[in-house]
Design brief:
Layout lengths: L5 H38 L1 H37 L3 E5 L5 H12 L4 E7 L1 H12 L2 H4 L10 E6 L6 H12 L4 E5 L3 H42 L1 H9 L4 H44 L11 H29 L6
Antiparallel strand pairs: 1-3, 1-4, 2-3
Length: about 325
Amino acid sequence: MTKFTAGNFSQHQSDKPNIIAKIAARFIRHLQQSIGSLGDLWRTPFTSVMTVLVLGISLTLPATLHLFVKNAKAISQQWDSASEISLFLKLSVDDKAAKNLVQRINLYPEVAEVKYISADSALKEFKELSGFGDALEYLSSNPLPATILVTPTQRASKTQAARELLQKLSNEREVEQGKLDLEWLTRLEAITQLIEDIVTGIAILLCLSVVLIIGNTIRLAILNQKDAIAVMKLVGATDSFIQRPFLYSGVWYGVLGGVVAVICVAVLAQYFTGALLNLTDLYQSDFQLIGLDAFEMFILISFAVLLGLTGSYISVRKHIRAIEPTAD
């Protein structure tokens, strides 16, 4: 067993400040290099601004398309949850049998609301709306069947669940025909899925282009400081120490480019909201365009930082290693 002496205790105590000092020194060194890399961007304003704008605009397109998909899904969910099943009863079914059917349907766990429209009420409404009221007086009997309107619960209003509920209701002996128009909703879902796939493909291509652009920008910055890098290596600087400011430059490009993308998406969302008001007024709808929330903005900026860091890392790993000091 190791004997714990006073000397060992004092050495143990002195190790703690050394570790803390090393961590603090490393943090300060990283902070200095990150601020210094931001100063390097400031000293080349034209190149920096162009790179930031390219990065921001490249990310704006997929982010805006994501916004359209997000709103399309919101519209689809609103319409889907409001879907209604119409049950047309047999002409031989009287009011008593129809009301008994309404009571049975109310017991369905998938049903939220049931509304019964008698044959006489349906004919009266048709007379008022069609404009053929006088002609309908000559009919010997009412040709319209009694109708039951069934509103599914939110869970049962999804496309597949609504179809299953329609089939179950259509099997009732009093029902002549059940109707649920979901073709348009299925098409909307297919279009939404297609847009999602398009967004994914475009995003991948634009991300690759952003990585290449930032990598090329960092490559030019390395070549411009080739002599300084050779001198630093000559005096003993490691590759990791030399490449750190260039990596931070990629991070700064990502942060600024992400902020530009967020601003561009917000401006476009505001512009589209004004144009959308004209359309929603025609349909007497109060739908509001949903913009990016705080979490989505954070994800967009973080993704831009990741792209900037990836592009700069690829560039510095290749080009800084290739620079070696030469003896004159």
